[in-house]
Amino acid sequence: MSTSAMSSAANADTGVAAVVTGADGKQKTVVRSGGGQTWQDPSLLEWDPAHFRLFVGNLAGEVTDESLLKAFAKYPSVHKARVVRDKRTTKSKGYGFVSFIDGEEYFQAARDMQGKYIGSHPVLLRKSTTEIRPTVPQDKRKGGKNGKGGGGKGGAGTGAGVQKKQSKTKGGLKVLG
Prior knowledge:
The protein has three helices and eleven strands, in the order αβββαββαββββββ. The protein is of the alpha+beta class. It has a single domain (about 5-135), classed as RRM (RNA recognition motif) domain (Alpha-Beta Plaits). The strands form four sheets. It has a four-stranded antiparallel β-sheet.
């Protein structure tokens, strides 16, 4: 796995979703965006946003969720471990995530386990950067109840019309591509 692929994978979480409902009883999800696309990813709801998550890269194919959790079991605050797998083939994608309740143990694990062998490969550890903000999916229909109702006044804030693309900058420099 290349360094660029690993760093982009460090920003992704996957797994089986838990159903989370808001105060109004509607099911919540997490809205993600990347590569010019936006999608809903309810699988992120199983990770507690208050926990500290560690990206574990360069995992061998034989590593499972259980063996990854076992590798970090010497830290009492380890909460969960997940190896990311291809949905179609169920083969490991070569990375995973480990969640810690305690920040001190999270930093200690990051220092101690960097480069250690889990399975047959030395692992690469990074801070997971995915933010988990549950939201209730918005209904994309323009009308009110029963399909009746106005489409609004049309204008700013409704998403109607052509909008200028925001220029991307990083550290004051324009990002190309």
